[in-house]
């Protein structure tokens, strides 16, 4: 079972977030010497976990096919 992913860690820069091992940034076991994977809060800000959760309310915002173009069937 995977570890629970922390939403707001105190010092995210100290850990590699690339896999479930959560290795220290200076001693990565699976990275093979690669760069540390940053926590989403470092990249997108503290509200990163609330992005994209809004439902589409208006039909106008959903992509509609252009009239006259053939529709591919699956």
Question: How would you summarize the topology of this molecule?
Answer:
Blueprint: H1 40-44
Query: Which spans have pLDDT < 50 for at least 5 consecutive residues?
Result: none
Number of strands: 0
What share of residues are in beta strands? under 5%
Radius of gyration: 20 Å
Number of helices: 1
Major sheet: none
Supply the helix-strand structural class.
little secondary structure
* SSE arrangement, N to C: H
What is the first-to-last residue Cα distance?
A: 36 Å
Architecture overview:
- With 74 residues, the chain is mostly loops.
- It has one helix at residues 40-44.
- The longest helix has 5 residues, at 40-44.
- The protein is elongated and about 60 Å long.
- The mean pLDDT is 76.
Summarize this, please?
The chain is mostly loops and 74 residues long.
